[in-house]
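Mods, move this if it's the wrong board.
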Amino acid sequence: MCKYCPQSDHLSGIISKPPEQAAFQIPLVDFSRYQHGTAEEQKACVAEIIKGFTTSGFVYLHNSGLEPEDAFKWSERYFALPVDEKKKFPNVNKEANRGCVFLDRSFSNRLLSVGL
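Not the wrong board. C-alpha cells:
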C-alpha cells in the first residue's frame, strides 16, 4: 500500500502488466541499487532509468531517499521563481525535454500558429 495514495493498487495497471498488455508503462526503479549496489547493479539501474525516460518519459523511483513532499516543495520553489530567473534555463533541445518551456515557445503553440 502506498502511503501517499489511498489506493493500494494505483500503479498495478501501469507497472505490472507485460508490455503487450499495457499501452503506457512507467518503469518502477529501485534506486537503492544505484546508491548501494555493485557496479553491475548501478549500470542496470541507470539503464532502467534511461529506458523509462526514452520510452514513457517517466520513471517511478522508490528507495531514493527523497520523500514526495520534498519533491513537491522543490517544485513549488521553482515555479515561484520570477519568469526572468526561469528564462536563464530554457529548453533549447526538444529531445532532452528539460529546462523551462514558455507558452510562446512550446511546440504545440508553434503548430497552432501554422494552423495544424
